[in-house]
Each structure stands twice: as structure tokens, then as C-alpha cells.
Amino acid sequence: MEKTPDELALMRISGKLLASVFEMLDRQQLAGMSTLQVNDLVERYITDDLAARPASKGQYDFQYVLNASINEVVCHGVPDAEAIIRDGDIINLDITLEKNGFIADSSKTYLVGTVTPAARRLVRVAQEAMWAGIRQVRPGGHLGDIGAAIERHAKKNGYSVVREYCGHGIGREMHEEPSVLNHGRPGTGPKLREGMTFTVEPMINQGSRRVAEAGDGWTVVTADGKLSAQFEHTVAVTASGVEVLTLRAGETGFGGRA
User: Fold this and answer.
1) Which of 98, 193, 229, 258: disulfide with 126, CB 3.0–4.6 Å?
2) Where are the strands (E) in 36-99, listed by range?
3) Is the CB of residue 29 less than 8 Å from the CB of residue 85?
């Protein structure tokens, strides 16, 4: 459903606040912290510093404010006091925030300390794949354009794209229509209309695209144990193109508006 100009103004506020959460995390030394410590740090920042609500907490009975997905974990990693972030890890932190009734959703894969060139390359290509998808967002375009661009960039670089999980519409609810697949064919799928808001969030695997669910009912891992990386932004379709609502200060890539 398209958002009104007033609703988009509120979504910009949520997006800017969520961007500041990642800017705070950028200043942290993650190595040596547990994923539960990161969760608690983010919860305090959202609630105390930003006077906002961590939208993931309590959603679908999930008791934490973020997903922390290390190395072979594709998504939905559950914060754990025993899961220590170590030098050489890659970790995706996926965070949602609600303010004034509207939700923003974003994620970033962090390189922790000295990371292997192979892991560093995977993370770079995953971020590039997200931007390749975002560049396709414009009124009159199609959802298939986004997925096709993501898949093309990943495969060109020798990686696979997870199909079981995808982007989604967002606004007053965390998950709204439409589903934004990370694969597809150009010119197919619903047309994009000004005022639509959704996430673009490719999960890119080093090996096979196949995934498996861990015993906790949440954590999703690569079936072959190889690395996975993800990036995510919340975007809005504008009259002339796209606005990235969760863009962080100093972030390189596509830019905020087009």
C-alpha cells in the first residue's frame, strides 16, 4: 500500500533513527562481545537515547531486539550470552525500530578485526548486490527488476542467492505486501508505484544457496557450512526514483535520493 506524504515523513524519522543505531555500532569494538551484549546495548540505545521502540522484540514471540548472524548463519541468529564475536568473524546485525507508529528495518554485515580476503570479498559483493537492486527502484518499474539485478550481480561474482527469505513491504507493520524477492526476471512482477515502501535485503552465500534451520526454530544456516552475508535498507519509491530511508552517514553506494 502506498504511503501518503505525511506517512512518508514519519517513516523518514524512523529510518534516520535506525541509521543512527548502526552509526553507534560502527564505533564499537565487537570482538570479545557476546551477541547478547550487543543486543542489550542496542536495546538501551533505542529505548533510552532515541525514545523509540525496538520493533522486533515480542514480534512472533521473539524476545530480542535484533538478529545476530555470524559466519555461516544466513539470518535470524538469536542473541546468546555464550556466542562470543571473535576476530576474523563476519556478523550480520539486523535491527528494526518503531517511532510514531512506523517501522524501519535495516541490516549490515560487519567485518570483525582481521578478516580473510575471501570473506571480505563476499561481504563487499553482498553490499553491492543490495545497491544493484535499489538502483532498479523507480515508479513504473517492476519488482522483478530488483531481484534480477541482485541475482545477476551475485552470480557474476561466483556466489548464490538465498531464495527462502526476501524483502518485504513495511510501514505500520513490520511485514506488509509486497514480497521483494532476491531473484527474478526484468519486467515481471507487480509495478512499482510512488509511495510504496519496502526493504531490499539480499542474502548472498559463498557456496550453495541451500539453507537449513537450526534446532532453536529461528537460526538459519548455510547447508554446506560456508559463509553468508546480508545487507538491508528500507526504501521508498519517489516520483523520480528511490529514497533510501535508512541511509547511514558516510555510507557509500547509491546515495539517498535519485
Assistant:
1) 229
2) 66-70, 73-75, 90-99
3) no
Q: Cell numbers at residue 194, please?
A: 510512488
The C-alpha atoms of residue 12 and residue 209 are separated, in whole angstroms, by 33
Give pLDDT tens digits for 119-168.
999 999 999 999 999 999 999 999 999 999 999 999 999 999 999 999 99
**Confidence band, pLDDT 50/70/90 cuts, at residue 249:** confident
d(CA 91, CA 77): 10
> Reading across the β-sheet that carries 73-75, which strands appear in turn?
73-75, 220-222, 211-213
- Report the 10 Å Cβ neighbour count for 201: 25
Residue 175 has pLDDT above 90, yes or no: yes
**Can you tell me the distance from the alpha carbon of 39 to that of 115, in angstroms, rounded to the nearest whole number?**
23
Residues 6+ apart with CB under 8 A from 31: 85, 86, 87, 89, 112, 113
* pLDDT band with cut points at 50, 70 and 90 for residue 5: very high
> By three-state DSSP, how is residue 66 classified?
strand
Q: Which helix (H) or strand (E) holds 211?
A: strand 211-213
User: What does the pLDDT average to over 83-95?
Assistant: 98
**Residues 244, 211, 25, 49: is their CA dihedral positive or negative?**
positive
3-class secondary structure for 140-205?
A: CCEHHHHHHHHHHHHHHCCCEECCCCCEEECCCCCCEEEEECCCCCCCCCCECCCCCEEEECCEEE
